Amino acid sequence: MTNHWVDIKNADLIIVMGGNAAEAHPCGFKWVTEAKANRGAKLIVVDPRFTRSAAVSDYYAPIRVGTDIAFLAGVINYLLTNDKIQHEYVRHYTNAPFIVKDEYQFEDGLFSGYDEDDRRYDRASWGYEMRDDGFARVDYSLRHPRCVFQLMKTHFSRYTPELVSRITGTPEDRFLHICEAIAEHSAPDKVMTILYALGWTQHSKGSQNIRTMAMIQLLLGNIGMPGGGVNALRGHANVQGITDMNLVTTNLPGYLNLPNDQHQDFGEYMELKALKPIRPDQISWWQHYPKYHVSLMKAWYGDAASADNDFAYDYLPKIDRPYDVMQMFELMHTDQMNGFICQGFNPVAAVSHKAKMTQALSKLKYLVIIDPLVTETSEFWRNFGSYNDVDPSQIQTEVFRLPSGLFAEEDGTFTNSGRVIIWKEKGANPPGEAKPDREIIARLFLKIREMYQAEGGAFPDPILNVSWPYNNPEVPDSGELLREISGKAVADVRDADGRITIPAGQQVAGFAQLRDDGSTACGNWLYSGAWTATGNMAARRSTADPSGLGVYPEWGFAWPANRRILYNRASCDMDGRPWDPRRAPVAWDGQRWSGPDIPDMRPNAAPEEEVMPFIMTPEGTARLFAGMNEGPFPEHYEPFESPLGYNPLHRDNLKATNNPAARVFAQDWASFGDADEFPYAATTYRLTEHFHFWTKHAQSAAVTQPSQFVEIGEALAQEKGIRSGDDVVVMSNRGEITATCVVTKRIKPLNVDGKVVHTVGIPIHWGFAGLTNRGYLANVLTPYVGDANSQTPEFKAFLVDIEKA
Ligand SMILES: Nc1nc2c(c(=O)[nH]1)N[C@H]1C(S)=C(S)[C@@H](COP(=O)(O)OP(=O)(O)OC[C@H]3O[C@@H](n4cnc5c(=O)[nH]c(N)nc54)[C@H](O)[C@@H]3O)O[C@H]1N2
Ligand SMILES: Nc1nc2c(c(=O)[nH]1)N[C@H]1C(S)=C(S)[C@@H](COP(=O)(O)OP(=O)(O)OC[C@H]3O[C@@H](n4cnc5c(=O)[nH]c(N)nc54)[C@H](O)[C@@H]3O)O[C@H]1N2
Ligand SMILES: [Mo]
Predict the structure, then answer these.
(1) Do residues 208 and 301 share a domain?
(2) Are residues 494 and 618 in the same domain?
(3) How far apart are CA 158 and CA 139, in angstroms?
(4) Considering the domain boundaries, does residue 348 fall inside one?
(5) Is ligand 1 within 6 A of the CB of residue 68?
(6) Tens-place pLDDT, residues 475-484
């Protein structure tokens, strides 16, 4: 979240689209209720299903799965053509005035630089025109034909309400009503927020869905504002924390990048990453990149990382492609990977195209499962009839199960969606032979290191030299780990005059103290200060909220620097006056930036200096034109399995039917189905009563939703002669499942480009392990194709057929 949970109470309008917060985030949803009750906020829900979020909304619109970019692009067109944007904000705080290179083009649904064989764009033509002094050219009148603002107007003018309705199936009047409601929030003192989750991410163009809404929020001037922002409601209790710590294989902790094979030279790499401003006087925060990188390597390798060996740069793998979960299973499937350690993860249930998953695991030599429970993954080799139709005699994979504790059986921290890190105590010790994850990983590491010590290896240094300074090496203490992540001086840190500012051994107060000379160590620059600033994380539980804005400055610690709202300088005009004095996180007081929140700005940057609020970019502005993998502007592409089979925007160019940069492995093209055979749009989602695939082991949860079901609308039910309670078979080109059918008024047929499109809804929680009635994994049906930027599978838009069983 750019903002945070409590801040939702400050919104005037809340859009829930691409998520279903009332059911998937029922506790956090209370802040929506507060906004409605206390300030008369309105709630709008856009979802293919009339969800429980929709049931308490002020306005609802249905949408065809996988078409949100068309909807949101239509909103952008509405805002631009009706001049409903916040002018000063757009002119100064976004890259609207920047002039784009001549070579940039958009034609027939493709941007310049497309390489069809590689399914990849060369982004060179997407840059700004630069001046001789290294700064970008801008036109604050916004009239230059190639300034971002004018290019946007042209690009989005195609998304008329009529076209939006044709693509999305959302009735035109409903779409226009929502446009009008959104447009009101271009007033400087009116703020809208967006709450989204998987309905946007789990698509072959998921990142662009979110980015399109970010553009709307920028046009309205809603980023940096209390009650505003772009807010991802995250999944598992600590998934924000694990993302911050490098969930994505191309990252290092704190969103630093793992160098790729083009970057073998340390000096060159640091220079490349330390981005200089491309506008005069801007902050361009990534200039500090080398400090964070070097401090990370000091945390990992201690004395073995020194200036003499480029701070152990050669120990880092230089990555040739992302190794996300789809890539891993592709490698297993093609015999390029033979061992897999799987911790707190049930991929057979959770990843798309289940048949491919079990085939892939069958090719392994060994599989290690670290989990408190039996899972579909640990049982993948066992025959469960049609639920898991495998022949164990043909599977040679050796499966090791290491029983772990559960998250509630360890102390440590959680980071919530709002970037707030809080300390938690454990509820109990893991039972029986189970061990905490920390101990399992530590002991695996120590054993592997021992083997390298004894037997050598091709390149043992990165293993042998890991710094492991814990009191009990077999069970590192969570406090020790958090202090390592928070950072400390490892040699005396001195100022320019040689005076010691932080003596060796002392924790640093925050990332501003980190150095690139090897005198500091820090496991994650974004968490720097989490330990020190607070003295003791466990004590950060003050419920004082002096401003009433829901800041709670001494409850937990929000990264970065305990800042609750990112880019909060943008909540003020160019003169440093709040757009809305009743909701001012910071303001310029004549001397400095101050207020209830920690300013996201150099504290003494006077407004006359014109230091722009988006301090992470070299421009100082947010980007309406940005280097996403499938294009600098969003464009509607159909899901890989589309009920239309063509893109109404580009019927004549088949290459622009689906996202041209989405990742598809060669063998998987044949596994996609088409609308002739599988005519219905399908999507998957969760229920409040279960958490994915493991609460089915808990009796109390298992009885609340004991049996698998799918949902269809009344019109389709009638067409197919299906009644509520009948068993049905749902088929995709990858397999079929049988379940009870619930016929519902909550799903309505949509009129899409003259064709009636029915939606089949498939909750995900059943499988062949646990205490519920046995069921089929929903992912028997889903396709194996990944988003172009995040590689998230397209779980939310595919094709099925349905028949009475
Ligand atoms: N009780 C419970 N709570 C959970 C979880 C759980 O398993 N159980 N899981 C947690 C996790 S890990 C996560 S990531 C979150 C997920 O939170 P959500 O994303 O809110 O959960 P989902 O139910 O998967 O999907 C949300 C909605 O997206 C809609 N949708 C599907 N396709 C589209 C589309 O193309 N466009 C639009 N606009 N909407 C679409 C679906 O109809 C559904 O209502 O929930 C978390 N909370
Ligand atoms: N079709 C479809 N597929 C989906 C989704 C969808 O919407 N549609 N949603 C996707 C999303 S967003 C997510 S997050 C995934 C969820 O997929 P997973 O994360 O794989 O599923 P979970 O069942 O939440 O958890 C996996 C395991 O973690 C174990 N566990 C719990 N606590 C601990 C612990 O402290 N230590 C260890 N070692 N193990 C522990 C549990 O016992 C469980 O077996 O599913 C994804 N798959
Ligand atoms: Mo998730």
Answers:
(1) no
(2) no
(3) 24
(4) no
(5) yes
(6) 999 999 999 9
**Pairing of β 251-252 and β 256-257:** antiparallel
Residues 505 and 592 grouped into a single domain: no
CB 226 within 8 A of CB 549: yes
Q: Are the C-beta atoms of residues 17 and 169 closer than 8 Å to each other?
A: no
644 lies in some domain: no
Q: How confident is the model at residue 227 (pLDDT cuts 50, 70, 90)?
A: very high
Q: Are 658 and 677 in contact (CB under 8 A)?
A: no
Residues 70 and 88 in one domain: yes
Q: CA dihedral in degrees (196, 199, 205, 208; nearest 10)?
A: -20
Of 401, 330, 323, 322, the closest CA to residue 366 belongs to 401
User: In testing the pocket of ligand 2, which one of 444, 694, 784, 787 has its CB within 8 Å of the most ligand atoms?
Assistant: 694
In 569-708, at which residue ranges do the beta strands (DSSP E only) sit? 587-588, 593-594, 680-685
Nearest CA to ligand 1 atom 40: 199
Ligand with smallest separation from the Cα of 170: 1
Would you say the CB of residue 763 lies under 6 angstroms from ligand 1? Answer: no
CA 388 to ligand 1 centroid distance, Å: 26
The dihedral sign for the CA sequence 310, 314, 317, 319: positive
571-594 pLDDT, tens digit each: 999 999 999 999 999 999 999 999
The reply to whether 758 and 616 lie within a common domain is no
Q: 559: which residues sit within 8 A by CB, 6+ positions away?
A: 244, 415, 419, 421, 526, 527, 530
CA distance 770 to 693: 9
SS3 74: helix
The CATH number given to whatever domain includes residue 186 is 3.40.228.10
202 Cα–ligand 1 center, Å: 9
CA distance 775 to 714: 24
Residues 684 and 771 in one domain: yes
Indicate the number of domains in the chain. Answer: 3
Q: Is 70 in the pocket of ligand 1 (CB under 6 A)?
A: no
Q: Is residue 458 part of a domain?
A: no
Q: CA–CA separation, 258 vs 428, rounded Å?
A: 37
pLDDT tens per residue across span 331-343:
999 999 999 999 9
Q: Is the CB of 688 under 6 A from ligand 1?
A: yes
Residue nearest atom 31 in ligand 1 by C-alpha distance: 199
Ligand 1: centre distance to CA 23 (Å): 8
Strand partners, 736: 731
> From CA 521, how far away is CA 488, in angstroms rounded?
6
Residue 605 lies in a domain: yes
CA distance 537 to 557: 8
Asked if 726 and 753 sit in the same domain, the reply is: yes
The domain in which residue 246 lies consists of: 241-314+477-537
Residues in Cβ contact with 561 at an 8 Å cutoff, skipping those fewer than 6 apart: 510, 511, 529, 598
Q: Are residues 598 and 734 in the same domain?
A: no
End residue of a domain, out of 537, 553, 585 = 537
Average pLDDT across the chain, whole number: 97
Does ligand 2 lie within 6 Å of residue 567's CB atom?
no
As to burial, measured by CB atoms within 10 angstroms (0-12 exposed, 13-18 middle, 19+ buried), residue 686 is middle
Domain containing residue 790: CATH number: 2.40.40.20
Structure tokens at 573: 């005009």
- Sequence-distant (≥ 6) Cβ neighbours of residue 653 within 8 angstroms: 108, 109, 110
Please tell me the residue having the least CA distance from ligand 1 atom 14. Answer: 235
Residue 363, CB-side half-sphere exposure with 13 Å CA sphere? 16
Last residue of one domain, picked from the residues 609, 636, 663:
636
- The model's pLDDT over 493-510, given as tens digits with 9 standing for 90+, comes to 999 999 999 999 999 999
Q: Which of 593, 748, 644, 707 is nearest to 283 (CA)?
A: 593
**Model confidence pTM above 0.85:** yes
> Is residue 222 classed as helix, strand or coil in its secondary structure?
coil
